[in-house]
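tool=predict chain=A
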Amino acid sequence: RPSRSWLARFTSGGGGDAPDSHESVDAIDQIEVHPDLEATLFAAEPLMLNPTDIDIDHLGRVWVCEVVNYRRFANSDHPERLEGDRILIIEDADHDGVADTSTVFYQGRDVDSAHGICVLPTIDGKGTRAIISCGDSVFFLIDDDGDLHADRKEVLFTGIDGTQHDHGIHAFVFGPDGKLYFNFGNAGRRICDKDGNPIVDRAGNEVNDSRQPYQEGMVFRCNMDGSEFETLAWNFRNNWEVAVDSFGTMWQSDNDDDGNRGVRINYVMEFGNFGYRDELTGAGWNEPRTGWEEDIPLRHWHQNDPGVVPNLLQTGAGSPTGICVYEGSLLPSVFQGQVIHTDAGPNICRAYPVKVDGAGYTAESVEILNGAENQWFRPSDVCVAPDGSLIVADWYDPGVGGHRMQDVIHGRLFRVTPADSDTTNNYLAAELDLSSAEGAVEALKSPNMATRYLAWNALYAMGADAVPALEAVFHGDENPRHRARALWLLGKLMRRDVDTLEEVKKGLQDADDVIRVTAIRLARQLIHEGDVTFDDVEGLARLDDPSPAVRRELAIAMRDLQHVISDEDDVAEAWSVLARQHDGQDRWYLEALGIAADGHWDTYLPAYRALIGDGWIANKAACDIVWRSRSSMTPQLLGTIVVNGQRPAEELPRYFRAFDFLPQSEIKTGSLSFLAVADITRNAEWRTFIKAEAFSRLQGVNVASNAELAEALSTVLDASRGTDQFVRLVNSFEVADRYPELLSLAQEQPDQQLGVDALRVLLDRGQLVLIADALAGDDPEAVERTFTAV
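tool=predict ok
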């Protein structure tokens, strides 16, 4: 164990205010707790140190990635811990709410700085498989004989970048569909199979960050053996963990570029681009673009770009870490069914109660634990125990993230229960009966993921014998989350040749919209797995469903099932029916439509136009569809919107931004050329804006050879003197007679970016004689200062 001398070295400061005491006995007094909750110290040093990630098994034991060999402490020749980091099992043997024992499940240099653990107990209770996410690999550590010590290791994935980096591979979680969900941040870059071969996912794409089509952080799903690999979402920065609820809905946090107060919480819409970088160019958020947000935290995620899924919630500055969905009933109702999240930066564990908002959600923030009085409190993960209490891991350090780790001798686990509850000093896991379908179904209702994993596998192994008990829950339970879990299993039993197709059909027509959403997701998987055909379920889900969330899922299903639908015209007609129901306000729904139409816009958009008929420009929703589209006819439609004058002028920047996502074509060039010279009925300021934006996008056009374009460009330049737009246009079209004006800008604003940019254009265009003459003139110092800046 690391020397206690570390305490003396680091108690005097670091990344946070030093508390009066670092002793664990004072830990609870230094944390603010929600008034309806109570926090107790479950475990602390020396029982365990530095927890990066935790999971809780069906017996309530807490499995901990205990990390000391992290970044600068992990020197290969002289690591802080020579034997390597550890995977620990922390247990409360006498069930009084305080841990008694710590067992080393595994220790080695191959778990140095492990950032993820997922515990998968065996049905017979004799062993456990733990999925460890660490460095460039993901592997199982397997206890075969139940002695709580790993006997062997099986590699699942390799080739991941981001070793000793927070933005690499993160924890796995078991989903209600029997699959594994996980993610990596933008340092992960790629993933290979256990033999080092690049993975090609179910969509036929090699999984890497080359923008073909994926980039930056990503979210994945696969079978327990790594097969049927899917890339579910991309373009995050550092999405630390993914949480999956009983309906199959995914939730994440994501860290901004530090210092921009842009940490976000995401509902992860499948196949969505989440906007950390420009979708096509990979440009960062601070690269100027038309119509960007004034608010930097929003600008950070390209929220003004067509093709970017909106954020659920932005939480300001932080270093977001672990996340889960609380699906228990022990805690007060405000937390039930909600995302629970830890953010080590502001020393907080929060819940984010959500409300349905069209095809998406709105959310608020409710604090559970706040370490304002001890800013060394660095919550790194949160999990739900079998009894419904929360366990919150505390990394405990004066700093957070990057290379700022300083403390290696502390680490805590806190337990959160209802205030004044009998459960505070009573930590018990319910006894499980997995030998009967009725007992296994009760276990499936557990708030604890490992318990549900055991129940899922027990019921799946029973095959047809499990159906009556599952049907009883699906048809008779009042809790929609329990019903959804039962439906998932009923569908998956088809892989065991159990005929439960009627139950899937009933799910698609259920009165509860969240069950219909679940059934659509289930049907998609069953079609991919070959257990049902598209014809088996076609027409059961309504294109005019009153729930936008259900229609959202139908749109996503269109994208996912294109390979099994033979008639593209039929799909285009169905998509048009969904698109016609866009209300012009619901960005979630609009992006779902865009996801569905990816690669098929030239069929879908004309079908939609034929459906809605003339007069569409007056309809904000129809203009939204055009803005989001990527068809060959989109440039003409965008141009029509711009010149028509029916849309408010304030909307014009977003329509020009949409041009940036369309490939170069004669139609695009023609539309922009038309806008550059058109007689537009807007005020002078907006006329200049329209023409300047059009010229800025004209590529490969010889303006000088076209008198009409040349005259229009001259008019725009006259109107935009002294602006960065003027500098860019002079540069783009090499307007030589305007170079003296660039020089004047450099002389007038030598210490401003505009002056620097103007002089840089002159240098790039070889205008050294012009510059030399200015240096020899009346004010050489001004140009000299600018030249120095360049």
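Confidence is low (pLDDT under 50) at residues 1-15. DSSP finds 24 helices and 29 strands in the chain.
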